Structure of SnoaL-like domain-containing protein:
Amino acid sequence: MRKQFHGTSHHLGQHIIEFSDPDHATGVVYSKNEHETGPEWVIMQMLYWDDYERIDGRWCFRRRLPCYWYATDLNKPPIGGLKMRWPGREPYAGTFHELFPSWDAFWAQRPDKEALPEIAEPAPLEGFLATLRRGAGDPKIRVR
């Protein structure tokens, strides 16, 4: 992995954790990344979908799914489809939005100019992430 990059930095934000029982939880954290890959400076937007488990009193990662929205050279914005654009590779689609069917539903319901947008019902306590997922399975992850 070190040979792929000359330098890398990940900036995290918006960490949400929900508990399913006293020893299990699910979380999501967004990450804006920068990678120096020889002649190109790649920027990336992604999220980590995590499952946690408390084992012997300590919280541990049980699983982590990296879901990507885009990766591209800083000077080549990823307009259009196939937003994963690593140097020396063919572009491909990320899995960032596959994780949340609610994203497609939201963007598919564009109100008319004269109408006010509908606001979704609030998600139940400890059910925000499940509401976003709407029972969807985990996406197949493609790592660089």
Notes: The chain has a mean pLDDT of 86. The CA atoms of residues 17 and 27 lie 4 Å apart. Helices lie at 101-108, 128-133. The first strand starts at residue 7 and ends at 21.
